[in-house]
């Protein structure tokens, strides 16, 4: 795995350089972007940030842990729907039922919606719910030593199942249309540009926070152990660890991050629907991570932002060809630069002095 | 030593990030949750006026929505050739909704706040409309939505030029009642429109004395209908009410034939199969029925002109269909409202819209200023061997739009 | 009785299509370890080939039979191109083949949309397949029975190829020890290519069955790919009989669940059942001692 | 028959074989000896084509085969019996043989011939090769390679890990093969005495380099011992 | 016998692969403080025996160490019970430095939450292990660039950090030079005083030089057991295994790391 081969720059990026990179990104997202972008573009960037948050988690689980999590849409959806349910209830007002239940059903609300009236409960649920689901699923899958392609396929099947379930439960979750029309966000009017900027800042801030978590984990013993598990799972067993537990932690962390991303996506995009969480959406997240560099610190986040931007920009200019671009992206990146764009600067950097060295060797 | 420094740096960075987040939280908390209407940025000073055309030109819905885009562009071209709106040439700003509701929401925001268009035309799926609704209300913009839908909605900022349920579903039921249908089987895709439509159908059927002998849903993208069709065979209904969407119809019609059903045993009435979709099912669909407000075969002078212009522009093999006609009509209606209001301002437009009419290909349509829908005539067509629709039944004149079915006392929205 | 025969027979027909799709995967995934997510699009290519064959040979009676070998060839050649252009560089990165072929699938799907339109095109069944046989109250369409025949032929052909022919021995030898096969004078590159050709070609044959059942459309492959993979995994790698049983079970169980609940619920429950099953038997229905893919 | 000129081979960052020159004369037999890890197997794998060389040339019958794939070299008359009694465990003994023989016009006769050479295999034809004993598998491996009708036979440790009573049998077969005029042999063997008896020339490989070479025969045992003791 | 209080007792250990008994009713008593060598022809079941003791393959019978029956435990539990092993092909974490490799091996003794912290300084036991294996100068080099022998030492070092009371070493000196073998042997003698060490080995020279006890395995069974001299004198051993040693040089040709890497590729 050349991605993780320790070139000096890569090593540096894991330590101080990584922190510097995060600081620069924070500066760009939290200070520069709000100053130069229009409200509309800033909203778009906020959406990309939500995907980036999920991508950071994928970088942890896939890049560092070797688990190709092809169904992160599930967790993105859990967070997104939890938040959206709260916002719908907020819009409906105390004691009232969300509008769509009146339209599609008989106007009664299922009991499990009730707790989401509480903002505090919702915030807790956005973290705890995906963690629990990931724990149960991960435990079941990883303990049986399901890995590699099997893991990926089961994961994707999960995303398909989840989206189908959402579509099928139209009276409870809005079905294919999903949940939309959120006038307020914890009391803040969502039509007000100032508040939109605030929500953007929260999303960007959460992205930075997730990056800091991953940066820290990367430096910790756990980070080493995770990479070790990816590269030689059996060997880790003989260090006295159960590799399943190590991977489980990364899987759960990735799930929580995806959920946080989804939770911010709902108010920023104004909608969360099955098409934001299905297999295709999950794969788009993977595309960003692959592009940026699965095993690098900033790569997944930047890659996700780039893919989000590319989707907006390319679909504006070449509306019929976005699918081709997306497909080509997978083919070119995975085939030619499997370690992602993040691997290019260190590679170039490493290539330069080596040429000098070989010349020296030749003259010797 | 070095590690403690690192920790310090880490916590500082974390604190910094947190501070940034918190400081940016200084949002304004307005108490009235209503739309703080943003000032319109529409530029009406020049001799052109920008209009947004927002349809999916990529993704699953592209093939349907592209036809809407085509007729919008045709209408714009005709209007421009005729002197424009209030003397201003239409400058279309095209965007792709990519068959994804979230993208529709994003793009309509761009069109209204960044491109500053005077109005947006487009949307197809209910999901796309629902996603655009808060955005268009939030920025007090205008959206013209050209597709028949499940009703139960009326927004100050949206004009609905397709049918609402009392202009398509209810006429279809009236047609069935007129044919003496006693038993009905409901088959639909598992999403909003079929679910809502069937809720209405079931209540109206009870009123009409028609028995519902089965109700089946299949996921949107599923092609396998054999199990459900076996249930139809078993139920032997007088008619099948089909609310299946898109390509899923092909598998349904195939399974229906294979198991020995046909127009003479248990005929189908569809609300999503039009001139565009029928050829995909070939001869299998011949003899079946569809409920719309427009067919290519409608004989009006306006329709003759429309078909001629459309085929001249896009090719003689191109059929015209209900949503295309509704989109074409929507742009002309907008022109007529604006010219009545003598203003592009949204509030002025809304104030002037009531009673504005247009001699559309389907016949004369008139806007209801209360609910922003238009009065339309209900038509039932029977599919012939050329995959065209022969009109076999029509409502008595245009039906006033009633999106919330307030005029129907059998309707109980909270009943299951 | 009807409530039992109907799902059983419809499920068996659905299982047959699933089996043809899964047989190709059993070869490329089970034997070669390549996770080809574009396999569904090869299925789609087979369906469109059926449609195109009908455009050229207008007699539906003949064209469908003709479409079977042509679809095999078209999908096989697509597979060959994929192998030669991309997969051959990635045998040591099985997980990455998954992602690359996802990209290939996207491109093929968009290509089909651009070439044929998103609406789908009709495929007429031949006269000799019109009608149905009434089995205990269920009108079993001849086309559905035909897919079962097609599946049995594909299965028999594949089994004979692997067990009886020289090329089958070469495939099995290459799977077991690539270097050794090479030094026995077998061109393992050639074996790879042909294996991929045959596996992809089988998807094309599956496409004919799909076209007969539900016509063509650009996205039809996506609804088969995940179930087909689950069938291969649940059946046990390298186990044809496992694949057969798993395909039949998934088809029939889904049909019964659809009958009892709804189509969406059936999908959800079937997936859940497969996941639970893989918890109990991660190595599938039938086990063979073989290298894992991980 | 086979000539290696300045061949270097390595894995990843480390070179294992350095600048080796070696020749197997037509009809002759050559032994390569050396400690574990000296690079003997690596050298053979490069000669057969399973490993790319870093530099140097490999000639087979005077033709440069350095860039050819293994199966192409096999078609040019190179037969290889790898270390470890390798076979295709899920194929039967007969299938193991037919795998090779099928492509040849006189395949059936050839199978019959090698079964005469290894009569013990006759009774094992329907059995899966994975269930054979080590000695039986080695006989199968040699028989299978003979079916490719090699003019040069490359044997990597043919008696390693095999029960003593079978070893004698296999040594007999190898001795018979090396004695054939129409067959050249390149043999890697730990058993110095046997190797030198069976071959006419030896090379000693240490840390990937040829440190000594000479004529074979029992008299060379002491020389080889001395060379390897360094 | 009197030296060791600690011991690993194996009774009737059998490993059955679909009817083929790779290990067949093996009885062994392995005492602390002695260097045990396990020899025998290829396929005799030596590695399978170690695999069974470390949870890699399922075995039946009894393998008692302290209060545990190893056969019922999962691999990581066996490690935590104090039994460690190395592999024929050295498997160190190539991308981690020597120091990180050693440190990561110490994880057994840390609490779970400590894993979430970055490393602070070098723990004393890691330093000790580094000294013991003599790789102090290379502590910051990636393990991937180490020579084959050095990787084997690193693996032994990792076992030291793990504080494995029982060490099962699979051909630790294969491919090493004479000097390296000597150094390895001495290292094993040093660390073996408080440990139970079992070495699978083919190099009889090495066995003669360092073995306290030799167990000869053949066809899954224990053929004989005793001191080097006793074993060498055994006719059956000569027949199945040592027969040709007078004639052969460097008896067994197991895969050297490089060659194994080639086969794996």
TrEMBL record, chain A:
Membrane topology: Multi-pass membrane protein
Compartment list: Cell membrane
Coiled-coil residue windows: none
InterPro entries: ABC_transp_permease (IPR001851), ABC_transptr_urea_perm_UrtC (IPR017778), LivM-like (IPR043428)
Transmembrane segments annotated in the record for this chain: 12-33, 45-62, 119-142, 149-168, 174-191, 198-217, 248-272, 284-307, 327-350
Keywords (A to Z) from UniProt: Cell membrane, Membrane, Transmembrane, Transmembrane helix
A matching Pfam family: BPD_transp_2
Protein name as it appears in the record: Urea ABC transporter permease subunit UrtC
Lineage, uppermost ranks: Bacteria, Bacillati, Actinomycetota, Actinomycetes, Propionibacteriales
Originating gene: urtC
UniProtKB/TrEMBL annotation, chain B:
Protein's UniProt name: Urea ABC transporter substrate-binding protein
Gene: urtA
UniProt signal peptide: 1-30
Keywords: Signal
CDD domains tied to this protein: PBP1_FmdD-like (cd06355)
Any Pfam family matching the protein: Peripla_BP_5
Annotated NCBIfam families: urea_ABC_UrtA
Domain of life: Bacteria
PROSITE patterns: PROKAR_LIPOPROTEIN
TrEMBL record, chain C:
Cleaved signal peptide residues: none
The protein, known as: Urea ABC transporter permease subunit UrtB
Keyword set, alphabetical order: Amino-acid transport, Cell membrane, Membrane, Transmembrane, Transmembrane helix, Transport
NCBIfam families recorded: urea_trans_UrtB
Organism: Nocardioides oceani
Bilayer topology annotation: Multi-pass membrane protein
Transmembrane intervals: 64-82, 94-112, 142-162, 194-213, 219-237, 244-262, 268-288
Family: Belongs to the binding-protein-dependent transport system permease family. LivHM subfamily.
Location in the cell: Cell membrane
Main location: membrane
Domain of life: Bacteria
Automatic annotation (TrEMBL), chain D:
Pfam families recorded: ABC_tran (PF00005)
Gene3D superfamilies: P-loop containing nucleotide triphosphate hydrolases (3.40.50.300)
GO MF, one annotated term: ATP binding
Entries under PROSITE patterns matching the protein: ABC_TRANSPORTER_2
Sequence ranges assigned to domain ABC transporter in this UniProt record: 2-230
Keywords: Amino-acid transport, ATP-binding, Nucleotide-binding, Transport
Protein origin, superkingdom: Bacteria
Family according to the record: Belongs to the ABC transporter superfamily.
Protein name per UniProt: Urea ABC transporter ATP-binding subunit UrtE
Source lineage: Bacteria, Bacillati, Actinomycetota, Actinomycetes, Propionibacteriales
Gene that produces this protein: urtE
């Amino acid at each position: 795995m050349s991605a993780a081969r320790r070139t000096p720059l890569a090593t540096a990026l894991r330590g101080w350089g990584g922190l510097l990179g995060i600081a620069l990104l924070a500066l760009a997202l939290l200070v520069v972007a709000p100053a130069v972008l229009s409200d509309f573009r800033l909203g778009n960037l906020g959406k990309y940030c939500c995907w980036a948050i999920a991508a950071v988690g994928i970088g942890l689980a896939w890049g560092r842990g070797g688990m190709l999590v092809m169904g992160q849409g599930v967790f993105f959806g859990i967070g997104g729907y939890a938040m959206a349910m709260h916002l719908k209830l907020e819009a409906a007002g105390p004691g009232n039922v969300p509008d769509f239940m009146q339209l599609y059903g008989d106007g009664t609300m299922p009991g499990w919606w009730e707790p989401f009236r509480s903002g505090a409960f919702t915030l807790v649920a956005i973290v705890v719910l995906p963690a629990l689901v990931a724990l149960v699923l991960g435990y079941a899958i990883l303990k049986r030593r399901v890995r590699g392609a099997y893991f990926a396929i089961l994961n994707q099947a999960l995303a398909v199942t989840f989206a189908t379930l959402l579509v099928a439960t139209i009276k409870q979750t809005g079905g294919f249309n999903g949940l939309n029309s959120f006038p307020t966000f914890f009391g803040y009017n969502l039509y007000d540009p100032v508040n939109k900027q605030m929500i953007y800042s929260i999303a960007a801030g959460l992205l930075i926070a997730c990056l800091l978590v991953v940066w820290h984990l990367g430096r910790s013993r756990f980070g080493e152990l995770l990479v070790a598990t990816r590269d030689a799972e059996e060997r880790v067993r003989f260090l006295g660890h159960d590799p399943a537990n190590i991977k489980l932690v990364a899987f759960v962390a990735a799930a929580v991050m995806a959920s946080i991303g989804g939770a911010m996506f709902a108010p920023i995009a104004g909608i969360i629907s099955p098409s934001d969480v299905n297999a295709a959406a999950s794969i788009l997240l993977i595309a960003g991570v692959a592009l940026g560099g699965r095993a690098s610190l900033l790569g997944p986040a930047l890659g996700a932002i780039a893919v989000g931007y590319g989707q907006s920009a390319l679909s504006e200019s070449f509306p019929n060809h976005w699918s081709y671009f997306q497909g080509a992206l997978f083919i070119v990146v995975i085939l030619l630069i499997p370690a992602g764009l993040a691997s290019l600067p260190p590679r170039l950097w490493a290539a330069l002095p080596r040429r000098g060295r070989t010349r020296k060797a030749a003259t010797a | 030593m070095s590690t403690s420094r690192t920790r310090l740096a880490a916590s500082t960075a974390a604190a910094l990030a947190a501070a940034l987040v918190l400081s940016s939280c200084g949002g304004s908390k307005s108490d009235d949750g209503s739309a703080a209407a943003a000032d319109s940025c529409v530029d009406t000073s020049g001799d052109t006026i920008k209009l947004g055309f927002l349809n999916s030109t990529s993704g699953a819905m592209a093939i349907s929505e592209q036809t809407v885009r085509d007729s919008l562009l045709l209408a714009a071209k005709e209007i421009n050739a005729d002197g424009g709106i209030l003397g201003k040439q239409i400058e279309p700003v095209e965007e792709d909704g990519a068959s994804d509701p979230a993208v529709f929401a994003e793009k309509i925001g761009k069109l209204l706040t960044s491109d500053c268009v005077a109005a947006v035309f487009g949307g197809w799926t209910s999901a796309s409309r629902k996603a655009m609704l808060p955005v268009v209300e939030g920025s007090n913009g205008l959206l013209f939505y050209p597709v028949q839908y499940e009703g139960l909605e009326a927004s100050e900022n949206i004009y609905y030029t397709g049918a609402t349920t009392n202009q398509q579903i209810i006429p279809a039921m009236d047609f069935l009642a007129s044919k003496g249908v006693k038993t009905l089987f409901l088959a639909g895709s598992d999403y909003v429109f079929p679910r809502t439509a069937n809720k209405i159908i079931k209540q109206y059927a009870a009123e009409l004395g028609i028995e519902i002998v089965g109700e089946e849903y299949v996921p949107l993208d599923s092609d396998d209908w054999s199990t459900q069709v076996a249930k139809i065979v078993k139920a032997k209904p007088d008619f099948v009410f089909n609310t299946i969407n898109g390509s899923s119809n092909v598998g349904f019609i195939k399974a229906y034939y294979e198991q020995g059903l046909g127009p003479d045993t248990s005929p189908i009435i569809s609300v999503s199969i039009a001139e565009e979709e029928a050829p995909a099912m070939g001869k299998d669909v011949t003899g079946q029925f569809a409920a719309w407000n427009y067919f290519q075969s409608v004989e009006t002078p306006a329709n003759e002109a429309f078909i001629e212009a459309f085929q001249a522009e896009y090719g003689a093999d191109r059929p015209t269909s209900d949503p295309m006609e509704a989109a074409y009509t929507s742009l002309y209606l907008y022109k007529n409202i604006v010219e009545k209001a003598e203003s592009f301002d949204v509030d002025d437009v809304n104030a002037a819209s009531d009673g504005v009419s247009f001699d559309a290909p389907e016949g004369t349509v008139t806007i209801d200023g209360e609910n922003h829908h238009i009065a339309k005539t209900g038509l039932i067509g029977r599919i012939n061997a050329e995959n065209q629709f022969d009109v076999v039944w029509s409502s008595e004149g245009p039906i006033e739009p009633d999106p919330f079915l307030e005029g129907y006392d059998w309707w109980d929205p909270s009943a299951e | 009785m009807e409530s039992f025969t109907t799902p059983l027979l419809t499920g068996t027909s659905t299982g047959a299509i699933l089996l043809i799709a899964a047989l190709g995967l059993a070869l490329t995934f089970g034997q070669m370890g390549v996770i080809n997510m574009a396999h569904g699009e090869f299925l789609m290519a087979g369906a469109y080939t059926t449609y195109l064959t009908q455009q050229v040979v207008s007699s539906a009676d003949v064209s469908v039979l003709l479409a079977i070998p042509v679809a095999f060839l078209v999908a096989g050649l697509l597979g060959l191109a994929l192998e030669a252009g991309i997969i051959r560089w990635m045998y040591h990165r099985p997980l990455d083949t998954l992602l690359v072929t996802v990209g290939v699938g996207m491109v093929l799907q968009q290509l089909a949309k651009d070439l044929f339109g998103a609406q789908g095109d009709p495929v007429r069944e031949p006269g000799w397949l019109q009608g149905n046989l009434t089995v205990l109250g269920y009108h079993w369409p001849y086309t559905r029975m035909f897919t079962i025949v097609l599946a049995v032929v594909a299965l028999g052909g594949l089994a004979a190829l692997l067990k009886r022919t020289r090329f089958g021995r070469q495939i099995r030898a290459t799977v077991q020890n690539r270097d050794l096969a090479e030094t026995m004078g077998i061109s393992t590159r050639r074996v790879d290519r042909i294996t991929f050709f045959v596996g992809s070609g089988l998807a094309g044959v599956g496409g004919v069955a799909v076209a007969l059942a539900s016509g063509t459309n650009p996205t039809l492959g996506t609804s088969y790919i995940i179930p087909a993979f689950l069938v291969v995994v649940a059946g046990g790698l390298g186990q044809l009989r496992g694949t057969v049983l798993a395909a039949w079970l998934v088809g029939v169980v889904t049909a019964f669940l659809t009958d009892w609940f709804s189509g969406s619920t059936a999908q959800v429950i079937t997936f859940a059942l497969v996941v639970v099953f893989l918890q109990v038997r991660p190595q599938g229905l039938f086990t063979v001692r073989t290298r894992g893919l991980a | 028959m086979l000539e290696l000129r300045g061949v270097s081979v390595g894995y990843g960052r480390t070179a294992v074989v350095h600048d080796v020159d070696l020749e197997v004369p037509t009809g002759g037999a050559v032994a390569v000896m050396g400690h574990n890890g000296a690079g003997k197997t690596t050298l053979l794998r490069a000669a057969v084509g399973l490993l790319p060389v870093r530099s140097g040339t490999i000639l087979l019958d005077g033709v440069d085969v350095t860039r050819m794939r293994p199966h192409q070299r096999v078609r040019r008359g190179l037969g290889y019996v790898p270390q470890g009694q390798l076979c295709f465990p899920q194929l039967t003994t007969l299938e193991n043989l037919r795998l090779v023989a099928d492509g040849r016009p006189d395949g059936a006769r050839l199978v019959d011939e090698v079964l005469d050479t290894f009569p013990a295999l006759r009774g094992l034809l329907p059995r899966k090769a994975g269930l054979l004993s080590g000695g039986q598998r080695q006989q199968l491996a040699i028989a299978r390679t003979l079916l490719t009708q090699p003019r040069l036979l490359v044997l990597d440790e043919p008696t390693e890990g095999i029960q003593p009573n079978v070893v004698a049998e296999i040594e007999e077969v190898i001795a018979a093969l090396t004695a054939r005029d129409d067959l050249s042999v390149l043999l890697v063997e730990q058993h110095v005495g046997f190797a030198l008896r069976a071959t006419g020339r030896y090379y000693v490989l240490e840390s990937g380099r040829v440190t000594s070479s000479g004529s074979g025969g029992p008299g060379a045992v002491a020389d080889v011992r001395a060379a390897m003791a360094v | 016998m009197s030296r060791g209080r600690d011991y690993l007792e194996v009774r009737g250990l059998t490993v059955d692969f679909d009817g083929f008994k790779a290990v067949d009713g093996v009885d062994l008593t392995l005492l602390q403080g002695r260097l045990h060598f396990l020899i025998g022809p290829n396929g005799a079941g030596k590695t399978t025996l170690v695999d069974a003791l470390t949870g890699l393959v399922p075995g039946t019978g009894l393998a008692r160490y302290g209060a545990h029956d190893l056969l019922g435990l999962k691999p990581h539990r066996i490690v935590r019970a104090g039994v460690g092993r190395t592999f024929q092909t050295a498997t160190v974490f190539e991308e981690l430095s020597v120091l990180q490799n050693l440190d990561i091996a110490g994880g057994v003794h840390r609490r779970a939450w400590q894993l979430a912290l970055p490393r602070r300084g070098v723990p004393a036991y890691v330093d000790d292990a580094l000294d013991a294996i003599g790789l102090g100068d290379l502590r910051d080099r990636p393990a991937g660039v180490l020579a084959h022998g050095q990787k084997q030492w690193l693996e032994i070092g990792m076992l030291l950090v793990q504080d494995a009371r029982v060490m099962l070493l699979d051909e630790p000196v294969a491919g090493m030079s004479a000097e390296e073998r000597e150094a390895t042997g001495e290292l094993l003698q040093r660390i073996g005083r408080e440990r139970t060490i079992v070495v699978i080995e083919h190099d009889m020279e090495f066995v003669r030089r360092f073995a306290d006890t030799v167990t000869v395995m053949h066809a899954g069974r224990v053929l004989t057991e005793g001191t080097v001299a006793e074993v060498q004198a055994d006719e059956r051993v000569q027949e199945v295994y040592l027969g040709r040693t007078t004639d052969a040089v460097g008896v067994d040709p197991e895969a050297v790391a490089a060659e194994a890497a080639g086969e794996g590729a």
